Amino acid sequence: MDEKIRVIIADDHVLVREGLRKLLELDRSIEVLTEVGDGQGAINIARKQQIDVILMDINMPGTNGITATQVIKREIPSIKIIALTIYEDEEVVEMVRAGVSAYVLKDVAGSDLIDTIHKVMNGEIVIHPRVANRLVSELTRAEQETDDVKLTKREKDVLGLLVKGNSNKEMAENMFISEKTVKNHLTSIFRKLGVKDRTQAAVYALKNHIVADD
C-alpha cells in the first residue's frame, strides 16, 4: 500500500480542527498527524516531523497563517499548504505570494477538500472559484504588463503544461526533454514574469492570456 498523505491542521478553533480531522480520516490515504492552534505551532511541527500537507487557517492569534506559510515554504518548500478560510477576500494575494498550493473556503464540501489535498500532492494548483476573480484583479494592479514579457515558444509550452497541473517529470516526458531542462525553463519563466513560484506563474499566465485556459 502506498504511503499515506501526512497532514496537520492549523486552526485556532477547536471544533473546526476536530471536524476537519474526522472528515479527513474518512479517506484511508490520509493520516492526520496532529492539530495546532496557531501559526507558530505549525512552524514548530513542520520543523520536527515529515509533513506533506498543512491545512492553514489565515486569521489566527500570534503568528498568523501568512507568516507561518512564508516561514515554512522558505525552510521546507516541499510541504504543500492549503489556505482554509471563511472569508472570500481575506489576504488571498498575500497567501498566494507566500506560496500556498490552494486557497479554499471553509464552506467547501468535504469531498472537495479531500480532492484538493490529492490535487496539490500531484502538483496541481487549486483556487476557489469565488476568490479567483478577486485574486486576478488584485494581481493586475500589482504586476507588470505582459508587453515586456518575451517568452520563447518552448517556455510557453512549459508554462501551458504548468497551468494544466503537470509535474516536472510529466512536462519532460510530454516535451521529450530532461527534467533538468524543464527546471531551467521554469527558472527563466519565473524571472521573466517576475514571479516566485508555480502558483504565481499559473495565475499570471491565465490572467494575461499567455496560455489558453482549456
Descriptive account of the structure:
The chain has 214 residues and is of the alpha/beta class. A six-stranded parallel beta sheet has the order 2-1-3-4-5-6, sandwiched between helices. Strand 4, helix 4 and strand 5 form a beta-alpha-beta unit. The radius of gyration is 17 Å and the shape is globular. The protein has helices at residues 14-24, 39-48, 65-75, 92-98, 110-121, 129-142, 153-163, 168-175, 179-193, 198-207; strands spanning 5-10, 30-36, 53-57, 80-85, 102-105, 126-127.
The strand order across the widest sheet is 2-1-3-4-5-6
Briefly note the structural class of the backbone.
alpha/beta
Radius of gyration from the alpha-carbon trace, in angstroms: 17 Å
CATH fold-level topology of the largest domain:
Rossmann fold
* Estimated share of beta-strand residues: 5-15%
Keyword list:
single chain; 214 residues; alpha/beta; Rossmann fold; Arc Repressor Mutant, subunit A; 2 domains; 6-stranded parallel beta sheet; 10 helices; 6 strands; globular
